[in-house]
Amino acid sequence: MYPIQLNLCDKHVVIVGGGKIAWRKFQALIHEGCTIDVVSPTFHEGFSKTAWPATVRLLQKVYEATDIEAAALVIVATDDADVNDRVARDARETQWVNHTGDREQSDFFNMLTIKHDDMMISVGSSGQSIRKTQAYAKKIKAYLETLEEDIHE
């Protein structure tokens, strides 16, 4: 894996799924300057607690291949393995896909980001264990909070 940061400003992202994992992915994307479609027959309660800007569309429907046609980035996060696999198959080679249920069908994995002062530190497990990633991130964040800033530019 090649670690990078993506500038998603003015890109189109589609999240297929409306549950807890989709909600977590959505929260990480909402402030990235991209347009976001979330496609799902049902939605996690978090999606309905806020009036989203025009850059966000909650599409309460069953997934269709046309839903991802304009996407640069596709996140597959339903609780239906058949739907997840179909989305991955429907994606074009030029689209980046994160299949949360199958590492082998993913082009990328999200990383947990820790913000400390003007630094961004990312922790990831190549899609193997979100719990382990969260545990390490918590330890790193706690350690950083104990430091007295001594780095000056």
TrEMBL record:
Pathway the protein takes part in: Porphyrin-containing compound metabolism; siroheme biosynthesis; sirohydrochlorin from precorrin-2: step 1/1
Stored SUPFAM superfamilies: NAD(P)-binding Rossmann-fold domains
UniProt-recorded Gene Ontology molecular function terms: ferrochelatase activity; precorrin-2 dehydrogenase activity
Class of the enzyme per the UniProt entry, highest EC level: oxidoreductase
Matches recorded under Pfam families: NAD_binding_7 (PF13241)
Key words, A-Z: NAD, Oxidoreductase, Porphyrin biosynthesis
Reaction(s) this enzyme catalyzes, per UniProt: precorrin-2 + NAD(+) = sirohydrochlorin + NADH + 2 H(+)
Enzyme nomenclature, EC number: 1.3.1.76
GO biological process: siroheme biosynthetic process
Domain of life: Bacteria
Name of the protein in its database record: precorrin-2 dehydrogenase
Lineage: Bacteria, Bacillati, Bacillota, Bacilli, Bacillales
